[in-house]
């Protein structure tokens, strides 16, 4: 190899090491050392070198996380060591019995217990050979699982190579793959926007995501993973479970959070009860706590039954499920005219929250579940989302239950409804049905769309009912004076609402595209379409074929976009919005000193309006965000900042004053 190649090879290796290090800082330790921009530059350099020298691509290169073609099916793999499940208990006395058994079998020696959170996801086993991730497998039946390596590789907190300083090299590590509640909510919202069936709970969503045959789809799902066992190691095993966890953490994986060690079962019980009341405070669903004997020697002496280890037990929290009576089914009309049945329930307390309504998704869900009005039903509350009706308790029927039929007329405007043959959903055919108009407005103003603060359902009800607003473009003609006649609107809030509407004129094109509420176009699809076509004009002239070429856009989405943009009413609306100064092109954000930087404002600025500040940032190549996210770089705190400031502080974001911001603009 000549010198040039040798130095390229070295640089590639160095970049892989560097990026993996920064991945760990960002995704595992939540403590980034460099900005997103600097990170992107490293990645860009590596991709360029790899493109020119494909022979230098390393198996653990971060560019190779999403690789391989979609599979036809997963192959079955046998686990190195059987994946046992945990015995359960539900009361302090049952846990005391477990403690009694452990102490009896160990013959009166001192016992230490480790307590971990039981995250409600699905078990996963990672196999590393010579430090490199070679396999990720689901639990399956405990002996044989499915090979989901290509999807596991897309989870950025899972290192493709173990840190050598951990001493681990060829080893099997077990843990849980899950979706944080926020990611689950977002995913479900995107699915609903795109007309897809929502997942019932974060666990199902995680399972569905890790079992995606196309790794590109899995890569888009905000999966996380934490690890709680070293199940095999070709080197020496640590002496205790806590040492195992420390070694796993050293190797670069996320480990079970909130671990505590106790010498008595009463200490364990106190700890568990303190968590039971805080279970909703963490950003993922926990269904209990796991208690494990700490000494690995003790674990070996205790052994296992055919199904469960004798040295560990799960203390399950009460399920977030209850039965109650289905009193009625009412119909809501969505922005695309979809008639959504909602279950009206006899109020019931589920895990501390009173539930009196639950979603039923659509007509065919009701048929599939075989629900009748008057049924006793099992209701689940998961992931802090709208509760779901799981199933009817058929055994409890009295014969007085009534079948449910979807109305043939829209309950809001009385127009005809129809249901396309290939669809689960029935819709109201009247595009100016007030219920649809209201929902479209609500969607337009929502956080991921135009992010217009201060416009909620009650204001929308009033502006539509009083004919102040008939479509989203009418919003821009609102004045504080017109709003002030409405109920509950004070002078200050009227001005605030109008300012917020004004500020939304500067939103990026992709947000506007999403905000239009085109069926099947969720946030991600809108972003991809905007990136591919760059402007409304070229999108308008794109054929279904052109549209389908965009990643993630299938035939159904493409036809839906085409249909929307062909509709004369929509064309007129887009033209009006353009006339109002809303952006119909992707902003040229790639140049200027703020390139790659995302700013966020909270509170009032003294020296300029928000709009002016937004324009300055965009003109310098930056982006203005609407909420605190991973990509937020700077949060500019003006006078009386809002809740965004708290959130930004909690996330360790860089907070700057208006003065500092002005200096940056001048410097730039
Ligand atoms: S230990 C041999 N620890 O709960 C014991 N499991 O049946 C292996 N889980 O299949 C499991 N959090 O998927 C363990 N901190 C934790 C856990 C945990 C969640 C899951 C795991 C297991 C199931 C229990």
How is this structure best described in words?
With 668 residues, the protein is α+β, with helices and mostly antiparallel strands. It folds into 5 domains: 3-64, Helix hairpin bin (Helix Hairpins); 88-316, DNA ligase/mRNA capping enzyme (D-amino Acid Aminotransferase, Chain A, domain 1, 2-Layer Sandwich); 321-406, OB fold (Dihydrolipoamide Acetyltransferase, E2P); 434-579, 5' to 3' exonuclease, C-terminal subdomain (DNA polymerase, domain 1, Orthogonal Bundle), CATH 1.10.150; 598-667, BRCT domain (Rossmann fold, 3-Layer(aba) Sandwich). 37% of the residues lie in helices and 19% in strands. It has 24 helices and 22 strands. The strands form 6 sheets. It has a 5-stranded mixed beta sheet. Strands 14-13-12-15-16 form a 5-stranded antiparallel beta sheet. It has a 4-stranded antiparallel beta sheet with strand order 5-4-7-8. Strand 15 and strand 16 (388-392) form a beta hairpin. The longest helix is centred in the N-terminal third of the chain and has 26 residues, at 3-28.
